[in-house]
Amino acid sequence: MSLQAVLLPVFVQFGLTTFLLFWMVVDRRRLFRSGKVRLGDVALGEQEPYPPLSRQIGNAYNNQFQMPVLFFALVPLVLIARKADLSFVVLEWGFVVCRLLHAYVHTTSNKLPLRGSWFALGGMFLLMMWILFAARLFLSPPIEI
To answer: How confident is the model at residue 45 (pLDDT cuts 50, 70, 90)?
Structure first.
């Protein structure tokens, strides 16, 4: 399996996170400039100053630092151990597509059952990647480091 094939889903996940970051920044700057949200409201943190869509965008961005952290940790381990193959890359794409769809639902309709389904399916892809890696690692001859 090529390095590019293994890393492309990582770059797409990074792109999603970066897109959500820029969207959140642009949205919040617009709110501050229009006066709909004041810096003091945010600084005090006593209540949520942002309107629903802004919260959805922020929450979708923050969510990229939950389950995807386990994805970003796994890929280098798989590469170092030389255990990446087509099945791993297919699982990677399954995870990343679920993250894209989860973020889409999160920032549009925000229907929790649908969003939760994409979250859970992505979690299953991630779990399968970890299980596959662990099985291949521990069922193969020891790797000297």
So the answer is: confident
Q: What is the pTM of this model?
A: 0.94
Please state the three-class secondary structure of the chain as a single string. Answer: CCHHHHHHHHHHHHHHHHHHHHHHHHHHHHHHHHCCCCHHHHHHCCCCCCCHHHHHHHHHHHHCCCHHHHHHHHHHHHHHHCCCCHHHHHHHHHHHHHHHHHHHHHHCCCCHHHHHHHHHHHHHHHHHHHHHHHHHHHCCCCCCC
- Selected from 1.10.10.10, 1.10.3470.10, 1.20.120.550, 1.10.357.10, the CATH number assigned to the domain covering 3-138 reads 1.20.120.550
Please determine, for residue 86, whether its predicted confidence score (pLDDT) is greater than 90.
yes
Determine what percent of the chain is predicted with pLDDT higher than 90.
90
